[in-house]
UniProtKB/TrEMBL annotation:
GO terms for cellular component: cytosol. This is Tryptophan--tRNA ligase. ATP binds at Q9, P10, S11, G17, N18, G145, E146, D147, V185, K194, M195, S196, K197, S198. Catalyzes the attachment of tryptophan to tRNA(Trp). It comes from Acetobacter indonesiensis. Keywords: Aminoacyl-tRNA synthetase, ATP-binding, Cytoplasm, Ligase, Nucleotide-binding, Protein biosynthesis. L-tryptophan binds at D133.
Length: 331
């Protein structure tokens, strides 16, 4: 059985893009994989996080994942900082990765923008920690949204260089599992920007804890154009907001874009947004409700993460210990 590793930053409340690009896939992959799912709190602090919020968001995120169908007993759910193997392997990878490789990472450029000098060095070496997350478990498959593809290519470059430098076939090749549909859900306010849990405008995203009224309002306010829905996908070219809403609909209704357009062709956005609201609420409302229930027992959530961390540690510790021996550290 192949081992899966994937992570999500507790830097906000997970949004619909996280769900469609990653979480939904994680839930389905549990049937035939050994899965390790991680709340990457060490990644989150590469940009400022209010400590109390980081703690509560980590617990909320654990609740959302459980409510979405992650099975924390059959599989592993934990927070990154609880397993020291991540930090130890990340340091070794800091010494394997070349600066030139990191300079090519588009996510750093997007996040740091023109103000590069004022960002943390953690944000810059972030992809090395991500490679360590995956390779500390020798995971071979990583379900992510489209935006993480470049980081996974870097993970393979690091693994290959490590294997080559030390003359061993130690780390496996990692395969990105990117969903065929909705691998990049866009902002409701700007169809050219990725939907993100850290966007300053909450109107730009559907959060996994939004109630039906909030979802309806956000979709009603979502940016669109003045045209009607076209007959086929070609008609969505140059209409990023329309394309995004149709893509979300198709992904949530488990159907194709062509099928959605054949049902709604010629419709204005008023009625289409109504139909979209129903589809979104059908998915999110039960998850939000179960999340609220799980949040009432914080102790249980903390215990679940601790038990996950102990089981994660049991896998990662021998692997990272072995890496330290390979490198020449006295153990
Ligand atoms: P993060 O927290 O930004 O996002 C978690 C997952 O959600 C996906 N995603 C999206 N998919 C589609 N449309 C969107 N708008 C959208 N926004 C986010 C992301 O691709 C991701 O799969 N670096 C990672 C966390 C990480 C990780 C790892 C992932 C740390 N270590 C090891 C996999 C393996 C991140 O920032 O995800």
């Amino acid at each position: 059985m192949q081992r899966i590793f994937s992570g999500i930053q507790p830097s906000g409340i997970p949004q619909l893009g996280n769900y469609l690009g990653a979480i939904r896939n994680w839930v389905n992959l549990q049937a035939d994989h050994e899965c390790v799912f991680c709340l990457v709190d060490m990644h989150a602090i590469t940009v400022w996080q209010d400590p109390a919020k980081l703690r509560s968001q980590t617990l909320t995120q654990a609740a959302i994942l459980l409510a979405s169908g992650i099975d924390a007993e059959k599989h592993i759910l934990f927070n990154q900082s609880a397993v020291s193997a991540h930090a130890r392997l990340a340091w070794i990878f800091n010494c394997v990765t070349r600066l030139g490789w990191l300079n090519r990472m588009t996510q750093f450029k997007d996040k740091a923008g023109k103000d590069r000098e004022n960002h943390s060095s953690g944000l810059y070496v972030y992809p090395n920690l991500m490679a360590a997350d995956i390779l500390a478990y020798k995971a071979t498959r990583v379900p992510v949204g489209e935006d993480q593809k470049q980081h996974l290519e870097l993970t393979n470059d690091i693994a290959q260089k490590f294997n080559h430098d030390y003359g061993l076939e130690f780390f496996p090749t990692v395969e990105a599992l990117i969903p065929p549909a909705a691998a990049r859900v866009m902002s409701l306010r700007d169809g050219t920007k990725k939907m993100s849990k850290s966007d300053p405008s909450a109107q730009s995203r559907i959060e996994m804890t939004d109630d039906a009224d909030t979802i309806a309002l956000k979709i009603r306010r979502a940016k669109t154009d003045t045209d009607v829905l076209p007959a086929d996908e070609a008609g969505l070219e140059g209409r990023p907001e329309a394309k995004n809403l149709v893509t979300i609909y198709a992904a949530l209704a488990d159907t194709s874009i062509a099928d959605v357009l054949s049902q709604h062709e010629g419709q204005g956005f008023g009625p289409f947004k109504q139909a979209l609201t129903d589809v979104v609420v059908n998915t999110i409302a039960p998850i939000a409700q179960e999340t609220t229930r799980l949040m009432q027992d914080e102790n249980h959530l903390v215990k679940t993460l601790r038990s996950g961390a102990a089981r994660a540690q049991a896998i990662a510790e021998p692997i990272v210990s072995e890496v330290e021996k390979i490198v020449g550290f006295v153990k």
